[in-house]
Amino acid sequence: MSSANQAKKQRSGFIWQLLENRKASAGAILILFFVLLGLFGPLLVKGDPSAFVSAPHQPPSSEYLFGTTGQGQDVLVQTIAGARTSLAVGFLTGFAVMVIGAAVGMIAGFFGGWIDSVLSFITNVFLIIPGLPMAVVIAAYLKPGPVTIGVVLIITGWAWNARMLRAQILSLREKDFVLAAIVSGEGRLRIIFREVLPNMTSLLMSGFISATVYAIGAQVGLEFLGIGDVSVVTWGTNLYWAANNAALLTGAWWTVVPTGVCVALIGFALVLVNFAIDEITNPRLRAEGTWTRLLKSHDLEPGLSTPVVRRHGS
Fold first, then answer.
1. What is the span of the domain harbouring residue 297?
2. Hey, CA dihedral for 175, 176, 177, 179, is it positive or negative?
3. Beta carbons within 10 angstroms of residue 92's beta carbon
C-alpha cells in the first residue's frame, strides 16, 4: 500500500474513532445544545433582552424562571440572547485564528529559507507580547463591540497555532509521499493542499477547538472588564452589569450563575472534544486506555498485578 493510501486510511480511521469516543460524543452533544440554543432559543423564549419587565433583583419565580437583573430585565431572556452573540464571536474567531495560524505555519514550514525566517520572527514577536494587555490597548482605540473584540482576539491569538503547525510541517515534508510529489514535479501549493493539509486534520481540529475556548473565555473576560459595547447583550456584558450592580454583595446570585454555568459548560464541552482528539492521536494515551479496558474486563484494577475479587449481589 502506498504512503498516500495509508495516510487516507489513517484519516478515515481518525474520524470514525472520534465519532465512537465517549468524550467526543458527550462534548459534541453539549456543543450542539448551545448552538441550537443560540440559533433557536430567542424564537422559543420570546422577549426583548433589554426590556424592563419587573422590579430589579427579583429572585427566580414561576413568572421569571431565572429572576431579574439589577435593571429589572429577564435573566433567562438575556442568557439565551447572549449565547447567540458570544458563541458566534467565539466560533468565528476560533476559525479565523486557526486559518491564519495554519497559513503562516504551513508556508513557513514548507517553503523554509528566508520566508521561514521572516514569518518565524513575526510569530515570535506576537508570542512574547502579553495577550491581555495588548488586547486592552487595541480595544481602547477601536469602536467597542463584539466585532472589535473578535478582531482583537484574532490579532493576539494566531501566533501559537502558527508555531505548532510549523513544527508539524517540518516533520511532514520529509515523509515519502511528500518527497514523491516533489520529485514528480507537482507545485508546492498543490502539494500543501493535496498531500500535507489532509494529514493535519486532527491538529487543525485541536487548534480550532483550543482557539475557540480561548476566544470565548477572553471575550467574556474583556467584556466583563467593560472593554466592549455594554449595551449589546452577551454573556460578558451580562456579567459586567451583574458586577456593576453589586449582585453578589446584595445576594442576587441568579444574575451571575446562569451565565457563569453556560460559559463553564461550553468550555467543558470543547475541552472534552479536545481530550478525545488527544486520546486518539497520542499513542501513549491510546495505549493507557486500551490497557485500562483490558484490566477491567479481567476484574483487575489499574496498577495492581493480582485479581481483585468482587462480591456481587451484596
1. 287-314
2. positive
3. 16
Question: Number of structural domains, the chain?
Answer: 2
The reported pTM is 0.79
Residues 223, 136: Cα–Cα separation, whole Å: 10
pLDDT for 128-163, tens place per residue? 887 778 777 877 777 778 888 888 888 888 888 888
> Phi and psi (nearest 5°) for 264?
-65, -40
* DSSP letter, residue 52: -
> Do 192 and 68 fall into the same domain?
yes
Give the Cα separation of 63 and 90 in Å (integer).
Answer: 32
272 and 301 in a single domain? The answer is no
CA distance linking residue 59 with residue 65, whole number of Å: 8
Q: Which helix (H) or strand (E) holds 63?
A: none
| Same domain as 300, residue 187 | no
Do residue 183 and residue 299 come from a single domain? no
Amino acid at 239: L
The per-residue b/e assignment along 55-65, b for 16 or more CB within 10 angstroms, e otherwise, is eebbebeeebe
Asked if 151 and 216 sit in the same domain, the reply is yes
Three-state SS for 74? strand
Q: What is the pLDDT of residues 157-201, one digit of tens each?
A: 888 888 888 888 888 877 777 788 778 777 777 787 777 877 788
Q: Are residues 302 and 230 in the same domain?
A: no
DSSP-assigned beta bridge partners for residue 68: 74
pLDDT at 80: 92
